[in-house]
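Hey all, sorry for the wall of text incoming. These are the three entities for the joint prediction.
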Amino acid sequence: MSDPMRIRATEKDGIVDVKILMKHDMESGQRKDASGKLIPAWFINMLNVKAQGKDVFNAEFGPGVSKDPFLNFKYKGSKGDKLVVNWIDTKGDKRTDEATVS
Amino acid sequence: MKFFLSILLTFAWFASPANAQQKPETPFNRMMKDSFRSQGIAGLDRIAQDATQRFCSNPQFAASPAGIKKAEELQKLNMATIAPPSDGQYLGDWKNGEAIAQSGRGYTWSDSASTPNGGGCYNCHQINQKEIAYGNIGPSLWNYGKNRGYSQELVSYTWNRISNSKAYNACSNMPRFAHFKILDQKQIQDVMALLLDPASPVNQ
Amino acid sequence: MSNPIVKQIKWISALTVLCWSLQVFSQSTADDIAKYREMIADGNPSELYEMAGEELWKKPAGPKNASLEKCNLGLGPGVVDGAAAQLPRYFKDTNRVQDLESRLMTCMQTLQGISSQSIIDAKFGEGPKKDMDAIVAYVVTHSKGKKVQVSTSHPQEKAMYEMGKQAFYYEAGPFDFSCASCHGSDGKRIRLQDLPNLTTRDGAIAGWGSWPAYRVSSGQFWTMQQRLNDCFRQQRFPFPIYGSDVTIALSMYMAKNANGGIIQTPGLKR
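and here's what came out:
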């Protein structure tokens, strides 16, 4: 059971600034634990953001993205837009959270 | 009267030099005893202070005229514990010395007893100019030998300083590397070479 | 002009330009670092802990199946706003001076029936301590931007401050370190890590006012208790028990020294 994302989105002059904080260990698969064993890779690899049902952002993350990733992007939109953010990770775990543009 | 006398005597007994080692059960001492537990190689015995540590824990007294006198006593005491190298060799291998200076390992509760300790020298000192990640708690040691010459006097002084810095300054911030067996003789010889071998990068 | 003088002038002007550009370089590096910090402060993962903490504050838990919404952090039952800014303080019901974490343990024990020992024994960042991290993040966020306002008017508060000061200067262990060895004067630095002088107002607020914090290098959220714990580890001391009096006394010492300074927690660190 994954932890909720923190989503903030504000609109100004027709541009919405979206900031998303995700809680995820994002193991690259390159790190070793205290005994010297490789910690298996486990990271968010697909991310999708829809505004009012339409795709506004799509991403494929690789193992280089750091723990607890922070994402910031802009799109053309309005106040009151309903945002749906969802991600899938390499284990098939999913997370969906919603927010409204203020 | 008897009661008052017994109180006075108890007080005098505690205050007498013979019992100066006995720790009075002040709220502070009790707090220090109760607030810690042993973990890994770090035992509760580490809370007990020696005379130098006790003295330096009171900076106000240490700065007073009486304190300055006491500091000289403690410096002599610390000096008396220093031993020269058993094989007469003051300088070892500066390459090892650099590794020892870089390593901050050892003596914490997360270190194992078998891990060789480092000197942690770069934590406080600039040494080889090529290393930019250095601290400023101690003076720069760049060109240590080159600037001071390579006399036997300097070599002995440096040996003593690393072994027990409090022989020269009772409240020096520098750990007493030989006194507390943080570094062994060979390690100190290697660090000495880092500073005093004319071929060391520190003296170029 | 003769050759040696020209050479000298060229040499001096080259040196001047070098020094000036080095200064500009180091100033612009410092500016860039400040800009970078501003940028990443926007996405401080501490906010994730704060969100989790708010849920834990409101969720019934423990054998008594109760929430923490009646927890008294010094400003009345359930009052979180500004509470952290006034801790540590004396509490009548426990008759002792407590910091945030020990006080939260009291609330969890009395309101929820959760044993303090299980929290004390847990490893940092795991199990009950992980929940504690989140609740601490939640509480301190409600003092962000406020001034530290710690009192020593109660005799136990004053005593705790004095013991904290004594503990601060207490040298021990195989390295002869006290807190003062690193944090007792201005301008000190270990490797490239600047050390605040905790005996002055400015240094104290830099230290006390920036923990708890999310550490980017390890991806961990550290509370003040964890920061103190790791200090003692590096001092080569034995293990300070979680929420013990020495940790509260040192907190009292730092907080009072920081009085009037602005709280920045939860912070973001390298």
